[in-house]
Amino acid sequence: MLSPVAKLRVLHVSMECVPFAKVGGMADVVGALPGALREIGVEGAVLLPYYPQVYAGDPGPEIATFDIGIGGYVHHVRIRNPEPYVFLVDLPAAFDR
Predict the structure, then answer these.
(1) What is the Cα–Cα distance from 34 to 22, expressed in whole angstroms?
(2) What is the pLDDT of residues 13-51, one digit of tens each?
(3) CA 71/CA 74 separation, integer angstroms
(4) What is the pTM of this model?
(5) Eight-class DSSP state of 87
């Protein structure tokens, strides 16, 4: 049992999430789950690939951009602010096809 002081935080990692990228039902679940968990006091965020084709328009206000080192290279991580917070990993070698 968690103590009343502890705050549970969950990062949902997925290839798709509404309203950003949707192929099947998983996008609906990943888009809805953080909000449902928030109702019981669990803080959540979503981690998605940054697909250039999907985000060619304006996906929402950018809160911050910062660099992360992966395999000797630096890639950008974009953070957007819909509900919930969504982290978009910009890794062209893996997602720009």
Answers:
(1) 17
(2) 999 988 888 888 999 999 899 889 988 989 888 888 887
(3) 8
(4) 0.74
(5) E
Where do we find the tokens 């981690």?
A: 47
Burial of residue 8 (CB within 10 Å: 0-12, 13-18, 19+) is exposed
Confidence of residue 92 (pLDDT cuts 50, 70, 90): confident
**Residue pointed to by tokens 């890794």:** 91
Which among 43, 41, 46 has a CA at the least distance from the CA of 29? 46
For residue 15, the SS3 value is coil
Dihedral sign (CA 69, 8, 28, 31): negative
Cα 52 from Cα 22, distance rounded (Å): 14
Instruction: List the structure tokens of 30.
Output: 């990943």
- pLDDT classification of 3: cutoffs 50, 70, 90: low
* Token pair recorded at residue 4: 């009343």
Q: Which of 73, 74, 79, 49 is nearest to 61 (CA)?
A: 79
**And the tokens for 93?**
């070698």
